[in-house]
């Protein structure tokens, strides 16, 4: 019996073919891996640039928001000053309507009751005195 049997030759030819196919498969796998890495790096690179652009836009918006916040704070301070100076918080009805304190402060000379209070005394008591009121000049 010799080694040159038809089965032995086929086996050798098959293993040679498998070696060629194995190398080809390895090359294909490496190429697919390289292509996948290239695509992934390209995607991440573009995403990074897009995020940098978004960060610039966010920075501009943040400055705009900061300005809006500052403007709103300034507006609220001005409104607060106006409320503090001119709003009576409902006490006008009690002091003026029920107690008629304004008549006692004005005095009988200006249509009120009693001796009245001078502007200097009113200020010393912590009352608000408006310079725009016509009677202010006469009360001195």
Set out the fold topology.
Elements: H1 6-86, H2 91-98, H3 101-106, H4 119-124, H5 135-138
Can you tell me about this structure?
By secondary structure, this protein is an all-alpha fold. The chain folds into 2 domains: 1-87; 88-140, no CATH class. It has 5 helices and no strands. The protein has helices spanning 6-86, 91-98, 101-106, 119-124, 135-138. The chain is rod-shaped.
Tags for this model:
single chain, 140 residues, 2 domains, 5 helices, disordered C terminus
Stretches with pLDDT under 50, minimum 5 residues: 136-140
Evaluate the radius of gyration: 47 Å
The SSE string, one letter per element, is HHHHH
Approximate shape: rod-shaped
Strand content: under 5%
Whole-number average pLDDT? Answer: 76
**What number of structural domains do the residues give?**
2
Distance between the first and last residues' Cα: 145 Å
Task: Supply the number of helical segments.
Answer: 5
Q: What is the multimeric organization of the chains shown?
A: single chain
User: What characterizes the major β-sheet?
Assistant: none
**How many runs of DSSP E, i.e. beta strands?**
0
Summed up:
The protein is mostly helical and 140 residues long. The protein has two domains: 87 residues; 53 residues, no CATH class. It contains five helices and no strands.
């Amino acid at each position: 019996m010799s080694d040159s049997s038809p089965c032995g030759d086929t086996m050798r030819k098959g293993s040679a073919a498998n070696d060629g196919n194995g190398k080809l498969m390895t090359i294909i796998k490496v190429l697919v891996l390289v292509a996948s890495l290239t695509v992934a790096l390209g995607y991440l690179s573009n995403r990074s640039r897009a995020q940098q652009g978004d960060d610039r836009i966010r920075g501009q918006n943040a400055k705009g928001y900061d300005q809006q916040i500052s403007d709103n704070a300034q507006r609220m301070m001005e409104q607060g000053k106006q409320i503090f100076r001119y709003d009576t918080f409902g006490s006008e009805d009690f002091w003026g309507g029920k107690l008629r304190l304004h008549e006692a402060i004005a005095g009988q000379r200006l249509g009120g009751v009693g001796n009245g209070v001078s502007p200097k005394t009113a200020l010393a008591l912590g009352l608000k005195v408006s310079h725009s009121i016509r009677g202010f000049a006469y009360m001195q």
